[in-house]
Amino acid sequence: MSEQTTKRPIIFSGIQPSGSITLGNYIGAIRNFVLLEKDYDCLFCVVDLHALTTRRIPADLRRQTLELAALYIACGLDPKKNIIYCQSHVPEHAELAWILNCYTYMGELGRMTQFKDKSARHKDNINAGLFTYPTLMAADILLYQTNLVPVGADQKQHLELSRDIAERFNGLYSDTFVIPEPYIPKATAKVYSLTEPERKMSKSDAEDSYIALLDKPDAIRRKFRRAVTDSEANICFDPEHQPGVSNLLSILSALGEGSVQSLVEGFEGKGYGELKDRTAETVITKLQPIQAEFERLMKDKTYLAQVLKENAARAQAQARRTLRKVYKKVGLYQL
Ligand code: ATP
Ligand code: LTN
Question: Rounded to whole angstroms, how far apart are CA atoms 146 and 170?
Answer without folding.
Answer: 15
